[in-house]
Amino acid sequence: MSDRFRKFVQIIGSGPHTGKHLTREDAAEAMEMMLLETATPAQIGAFLIAHRIVRPTGAELAGMLDTYAKIGPQLQPVASHDRSPVIFGIPYDGRSRTMPLAPLVSLILTAVEIPVILHGGDWMPTKYGTPLIDIWQEWGIDWTQMSLDRVQHTFATTGLGFIYTPTHFPAAAGLTPYRDQIGKRPPIATLELMWCPYAGDAHSIFGYVHPPTEQTALVAATLRDTPHKITTVKGLEGSTDLPRDRAVIIGVHRAGQDLERIFLHHYDYGLSNVNPPLLTNPEMMAEFALVLAGKPSNLLDSVLWNAGFYLWHCGGASDMAAGMKLARELLTSGAVSKQLERIKESI
Question: Taking every annotated instance into account, which residue ranges of this chain make up the domain Glycosyl transferase family 3 N-terminal (predicted)?
């Protein structure tokens, strides 16, 4: 047993009257002890459920992110990339109601040389939704079998990289069973959204469900003096995918500046308010194939809606309408399908 870690459990687990929050430095140390398994399984489980109950502070998230930056893998900057990469922080527990759009959006962005880095793992407690890694495997791209050096090569040559946690950050993946055992999503789920597995300047984009998550994350980013641009999206199932059944609420955070808000409405762009429901993998891949061929499908409008925004927001189009038009042209011309083939060839 770790006497040091026991103190951390006592601090956050002492109840509403005597309990306290950790300092940034203590939170960093606690995270490192969990990742390196210096703490015992009983201590780790107790810490995660106690921290779930009291909720993390921005300072605690900042400390935990310090440890992720210290221990976790990072892709390196590529001289030939003219733009900083987009880091999509998407919940590790996957999708259970709506179709994931980020893989198609990532192909569209990288087709116009906007680099993208994704990260994630397998089916994750407590939601057990469809993970993004499944989609890439269906396309014949198996990030699970690639070394970090090979991912770096693919990122350098195609602009797309995927950090697969069980292979590239096994210490973090080692905490996954605790989520199943405690039956709750612990606070480390929030820091995973914010994690930037890249050694240079980047544009971090992550989704959230509850407004306090956004505020706590932005406090953490400010404390860490995060120099790069951060975009938050109240997206589908906590992802970065824009919904069509409600107003899209987006926050743009730049160091030293006030938070900027962007609001988008589907009806301003002639779209219905229907989000494509999650299908079985074969049905979903058939829809993806229609989109990649530039053919009409139930999914196409949502892909154009999302890709249009991200092309505009990441500097690839002058406005939202121009981004949607460009996304359609890239799909119908076959440029996105060619990009998918380039990625397959690079591995």
Answer: 19-68
